[in-house]
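Throughout our pipeline, every protein is held as a single compact record rather than as scattered files. The record that follows is passed on verbatim for readers who wish to inspect the format.
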Amino acid sequence: MTGRHAAPKRRRKEYEDDEFAKASGRFITAMGRRAATNPDALAYMLDLQQVMKDEIDRAAASLHADAGFSLGEIARFLTENGHKMTRQNAIKRWGPSSMARKLAPAAIAQVINLARVRAQRARAEVWGAQDAEAEVVQLGERKTG
């Protein structure tokens, strides 16, 4: 049972994309002013730059793969909104082979680690748990040379 004096539910304010982008721009400008006096802030800005690049790539690839826009349509829309982009440039930047190259190193690393874990489990079955635990320590250490 709800109380007699319950606060009415507020409707959440919906923000348009352009308002959100303007607010983000103001935030980045303020971060730039801080970076002018603090080297740590400059390092954080460089991290943000990489995150921004990755998210632009992800958004464009999603528009193409999930929303059904062609890369030519995306390039034309960006050009109409002041960002010079050719169809060929969009294909080079966000096409399937380009995105596969950007995503491949992380995916390959996971496959290699999975293969090591499977090999470790197989050795544990053959040689016993004691040797398997020693292998776990070696997997966590970075091998040099």
Summary: The CA atoms of residues 21 and 98 lie 27 Å apart. The chain is about 75% helix and 0% strand.
